[in-house]
Design a protein that fits this description.
The structure holds 2 protein chains of 2 kinds. Chain A is mostly helical. Chain A has one domain. Chain A is built from 11 helices and 2 strands; from the N terminus they run ααααββααααααα. Chain A has a two-stranded antiparallel ribbon. Chain B is an all-alpha fold. Chain B has one domain: ABC transporter involved in vitamin B12 uptake, BtuC (Orthogonal Bundle), CATH 1.10.3470. Chain B contains 15 helices and 2 strands. Chain B has a two-stranded antiparallel ribbon with strand order 1-2. Chain B is globular, with a radius of gyration of 19 Å. The two termini of chain B are about 10 Å apart. The model of chain B has no long low-confidence stretch (mean pLDDT about 85). Classes of the chains: A mainly alpha, B mainly alpha.
């Protein structure tokens, strides 16, 4: 009984982790950027979505849409205000760009967190469930919303798979992650590909943020934790590998849920952190990493 | 260059003298802010040695600081060791912890190394909460002994500590070892080809960084009289240290200390802004990174060289 409970509960949270991590790994794969403002973008989507759904009276669905758009806008701002100026700066030596992007996005994330805390306070907000009711799965009473979230997350991941593997732009993105120079030689503008990648990322992070708000609730203080968990899932799965990130998301999600149910809820993050350290030492490229 | 260096030395000496005289005419409130800022300066300098010179992004400076601080606090409150012994034990604990972290972690490159150091902080934070019976958990613990109850004396302790650490670290960074570290940070392959043991030097840098971080962490808790996760372990503290060092100028050591004092003072003076405070401070730091990537002191020094 308890095992089924863990299986069902872990599934929804894991698919959300996966959704959030896929965007993170996509940006790294295509443009080599580790975006430490990731959690901030998710928080913006969640808070704006909550505001639109409640105060502005757009309802849950309208709020969700507005929240995703807000996530997209924040992702663009991250790229245009922080990442691109650093990548193009002549005062920063090429071998140091990575460190500067890390520090820059970290600061940007703090700015987002501080600004959002000012506008929305740091109380947690919860968006109303997309659908109400309780369903019994293998004898476990589960909110229908939780199932819908898992389904939505997988639908989005499926769409992303189609986009990357079945369309011209998607294939160009794939190419850019393997060999940027080769793609340029084929006549693609790298800058535009980067913009496409950041758009996809913004939408993914936005959806993940809004869904998280309707599942667990989100507050501005979560931003750092959200970045850290996406970062560790992506490293666990292998930087730049989408399927690796998905597997890692489930490993982490289930490990956390099992710890919370079987040992103690306070120990929730510890086993996955230890696993992360072990994997990084033994196999730095992660489960499915190329490098 | 020799002229510039000696001029810098005289400027530094003048600044230290002025700083030492502050307790005679500055309010106790400002003194206590500066005291904390000086310990923060040592954290930032220790971080700069690792980042600016060895080229390793340590996202977890607070792992080393927290190890030192909690070792000192636990020894003082349970065994009742006197303060000097506690500080020495804290330094040792931080170095041992640093070695345990660095030896395996330095096999990793760039973001992976950063991630492991970040995870180390998260683990330490969790363990402090789990072993709440010894560490006081989320509330923190009170330390029975304090350095002094006089604000002026506390201030002088902090200033003296900062000046000694700055001299040692600056000297180290300008020595042959510092040059080798800088070479390993910029091009590890070439440094190794020149016959230097890159890993050994980086581990040594980590140990030195840990030594200073741990000692400063212990001094800080004996100044404040309490040790808690929020003041010595939390990732937010680590982020502040990183901001301070980058703001002041990487690869300058002294710049990191100036950045820390600037950051703490800015935080204090922007306090009326309430929650916008962090936003403004982060925005200033981001602007510095975008427009003066060498940091404030680095920018000033380079202008001085060009003229």
């Amino acid at each position: 009984m308890r095992a089924i409970q863990i299986l069902v509960d872990g599934f929804a949270i894991s698919s959300l982790y996966g959704l959030a991590a896929v965007g993170f790994t996509l940006i790294f794969g295509v443009s080599g950027v580790l975006n430490l403002a990731h959690g901030g973008i998710m928080v913006v989507a969640a808070l704006v979505g909550w505001l639109a759904a409640g105060e502005l009276g757009l309802g849950t669905y309208g709020g969700t849409l507005v929240g995703v758009l807000a996530g997209l806008a924040t992702a663009y701002a991250t790229y245009l205000v922080v990442v691109r100026p650093i990548q193009r700066s002549r005062a920063i030596r090429p071998e140091e760009t990575e460190i500067f992007v890390l520090t820059g996005t970290l600061l940007w994330g703090i700015m987002i967190q501080g600004g959002m805390a000012y506008l929305f306070t740091d109380n947690p907000v919860t968006i109303r469930p997309l659908i109400s009711g309780v369903v019994s799965v293998f004898g476990v009473r589960t909110p229908a919303n939780e199932i819908l979230i898992a389904v939505l997350a997988w639908a989005v991941i499926g769409l992303l798979w189609l986009l990357v593997n079945r369309t011209r732009t998607g294939k160009a993105l794939l190419g850019a992650s393997m060999n940027p120079r080769g793609v340029t030689l084929l006549g693609y503008e790298l800058t535009q590909l980067y913009l496409v990648a950041w758009s996809i990322y913004g939408v993914l992070a936005g959806i993940a943020g809004v869904l998280l708000a309707s599942f667990l609730g989100v507050s501005t203080t979560n931003a750092g934790q959200l970045t850290a968990s996406a970062f560790s899932i992506v490293v666990l799965g292998g930087l730049g590998s989408v399927s690796g990130s998905l597997i890692a998301a489930y490993v982490v999600g289930y490990l956390e849920t099992a710890t919370a149910y079987l040992i103690a809820p306070t120990l929730r993050p510890i086993p996955s952190l230890i696993l992360l350290v072990l994997v990084v030492y033994v196999r730095p490229q992660g489960f499915l990493g190329r490098r | 260059m020799a002229f510039l260096r000696s001029r810098l030395f005289w400027i530094a000496a003048a600044v230290v003298v002025v700083a030492a005289l502050l307790p005679f005419w500055v309010s106790i409130y400002l003194l206590s802010v500066l005291t904390a800022a000086y310990y923060f300066g040592v954290f930032a300098m220790a971080w700069d040695l690792l980042f600016g010179f060895a080229g390793e992004v340590n996202f977890g400076p607070t792992f080393l600081i927290g190890l030192g601080a909690y070792t000192a606090a636990i020894l003082n409150s349970t065994v009742g060791l006197p303060i000097p012994l506690c500080v020495i034990a804290a330094a040792l604990a931080a170095v041992v912890g640093g070695i345990l972290l660095a030896v395996p972690a330095l096999r990793l490159r760039g973001p992976y190394f950063g991630l492991v150091t970040l995870v180390a902080v998260l683990l330490l934070q969790n363990f402090v909460v789990i072993f709440a019976s010894i560490t006081g958990g989320e509330i923190g613990m009170t330390v029975p002994d304090v350095l002094s109850i006089d604000a002026g004396v506390n201030y002088w302790y902090a200033l003296a500590f900062l000046v000694v650490c700055a001299a040692l670290l600056f000297g180290l960074s300008r020595s042959a070892v510092g040059l080798i570290l800088q070479a390993s940070g910029q091009d590890a392959v070439e440094a190794a080809a020149l016959g230097f043991n890159v890993t050994k030097h980086k581990i040594a840098a980590f140990c030195v960084s840990a030594l200073f971080s741990g000692t400063a962490g212990a001094m800080l808790i004996f100044y404040m009289g309490t040790a808690s996760v929020d003041t010595v372990v939390d990732i937010a503290i680590g982020v502040q240290i990183i901001i301070a060092a980058v703001l002041g100028g990487r690869r300058t050591i002294i710049g990191a200390a100036l950045g820390a004092v600037f950051l703490i003072l800015a935080n204090e003076f922007l306090r009326p802004l309430g929650q916008l405070n962090t936003f403004v401070v982060a925005a200033i730091a981001l602007a510095v990174i975008l427009f003066f990537p060498e940091g404030l002191l680095g920018y000033a020094l380079h202008r001085g060289e060009r003229e």
